[in-house]
Amino acid sequence: xxxxxxxxxxxxxxxxxxxxxxxxxxxxxxxxxxxxxxxxxxxxxxxxxxxxxxxxxxxxxxxxxxxxxxxxxxxxxxxxxxxxxxxxxxxxxxxxxxxxxxxxxxxxxxxxxxxxxxxxxxxxxxxxxxxxxxxxxxxxxxxxxxxxxxxxxxxxxxxxxxxxxxxxxxxxxxxxxxxxxxxxxxxxxxxxxxxxxxxxxxxxxxxxxxxxxxxxxxxxxxxxxxxxxxxxxxxxxxxxxxxxxxxxxxxxxxxxxxxxxxxxxxxxxxxxxxxxxxxxxxxxxxxxxxxxxxxxxxxxxxxxxxxxxxxxxxxxxxxxxxxxxxxxx
Length: 329
Ligand code: ADP
Ligand code: MG
Known about the structure:
This protein is α+β, with helices and mostly antiparallel strands. It has helices at residues 36-53, 61-67, 77-92, 102-107, 121-130, 160-174, 268-281, 283-293; strands spanning 4-6, 15-21, 24-30, 73-74, 137-139, 144-146, 180-184, 187-191, 200-205, 214-220, 223-229, 234-237, 240-243, 258-265, 298-303, 307-310, 318-320, 326-327.
C-alpha cells in the first residue's frame, strides 16, 4: 500500500519501469522517450540498496552486522553513509528517529507481516535496553561496523526508501534528465516540472480510506516527499491499534495523536526520516523541530480528528479534497 499516490499515469512516449523491491512497489517515469538506459541504471540502484540494507535478508551487509554484534564487520561505503546520516537524524530529532530499533522490531514481530503479537513487557524492556547502541563503533576509513553488544541491531526501514531516491536523483543529474517522477512505495521525488509551466501533482492518501482514496493533493517541482502513517502496517489487538512505527522512548508503537505525516523537501532520506520522527513526536513538537532545525523542509500532519497542521507556507499548492479534513486555525 502506498502512502502517496502518483496522480500522473504513465504517458505514452515516456521512459518508464515499475516493480517490487524493499517490500514495496516502485514506479519510475522519465519524461520523453530514449531514456531507457538511465531507467535500467535506476533499477540497478534499487536492487543494490535493497541488497545492502535489508536487515532481514541474510545476504545483506546489515544482516551480517546484526548477526555478528561483537565483531568488526566489513560493509560497503553505502551502509556507512546511511548509518552516519541515520545517527545524525537521531540526534536532530531528539531520538525520535532511531536506526537501532531492530531488537524492538523483532520483539513486536514487525518485520514479519504474517503474524503480529503484543510482547510481554519484560521482553520490550529487554529489547529497549539492547537498542541503545551505546557500544557502537564505526570505522569510516576501514569501512567496518561493530555493534558491540549482543542483542543490538540496525534497521533502516524508516529511511531506506528516501536514501534510494537520493541515489537515483544523483544518476538523473549525471545523465542530464530534467523531468521525472520517481515513486518508491509512496516516497516520491519530483524532478523538474511535468511539462513546462506545469508542476507534478501528488495525491496524499486518506489515512482511513481505501488504497486509492486521497484527502489532498500537493503540487511539487524539484523536491521529494515522504509520508508515514499508522495505516500502512498495523494490527488491532483488544481494541488497541498497534502500528509499525515505534516510539524509541517507550519501546511501544507510537501513539502521538497523528495518523499521517507528510514531509516535503530537497533530500529524500531526510524527508523519510522526518516523516517517521514526526509520527513519533506529535504535531506540536514535530512542527517546532522542523522550523528550528529543518527550515528547508515542510510538513503536512494529520491528527486523529482530521485536523491538518502545516509548517508556514506549506498550504500553497496543497489542496484539501475531503470535507472532513480542515486546517488547524
Ligand atoms: P513506511 O516504510 O511504511 O513508508 P516509515 O518510513 O515510517 O514508513 O518506516 C517505518 C519503518 O521504520 C518500520 O517498519 C521500521 O522498520 C522502522 N522504524 C519503526 N519505528 C522507527 C523509529 N522510531 N525510527 C526509525 N525507524 C523506525
Ligand atoms: Mg520514514
